[in-house]
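Subject: design request, 130 residues
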């Protein structure tokens, strides 16, 4: 094999390796927020009641583009989740029956700070990754 062929083969191998490295890093970065986050939600607007508890334990599991929410009333409630690369997010979710839930906030490191608005209540979430 000529020197030219060996050099060309090395260059092609290096380019292919670089493409795989960049592609793999991009895929890994895409779901950097995945995990289980737990903490509290505190009522910020609305009258405390069984429908709107003043405080409640919350668990959020993020997997790809889905957020699964659990509190004292809902278990494994699935919603769309599309965060920006900086961790900020803002979504509107329409439940069966037409009720609308707005949620927005930011994931910073291993913490989520978010505000959630339902037809009856507004909450602030403070969650930490487990």
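Subject: RE: design request

Done. Sequence follows.
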């Amino acid at each position: 094999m000529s020197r030219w062929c060996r050099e060309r083969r090395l260059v092609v191998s290096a380019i292919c390796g670089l493409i795989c490295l960049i592609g793999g890093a991009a895929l890994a970065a895409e779901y950097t927020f995945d995990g289980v986050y737990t903490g509290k939600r505190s009522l910020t607007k609305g009258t405390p009641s069984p429908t709107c508890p003043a405080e409640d334990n919350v668990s959020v599991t993020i997997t790809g583009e889905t957020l699964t929410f659990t509190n004292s009333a809902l278990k494994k409630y699935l919603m769309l989740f599309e965060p920006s690369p900086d961790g900020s997010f803002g979504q509107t979710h329409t439940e069966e029956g037409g009720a609308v839930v707005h949620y927005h906030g930011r994931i910073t490191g291993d913490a989520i700070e978010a505000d959630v608005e339902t037809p009856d209540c507004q909450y602030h979430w403070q969650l930490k990754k487990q």
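The chain has two domains: 1-30, 35-129.
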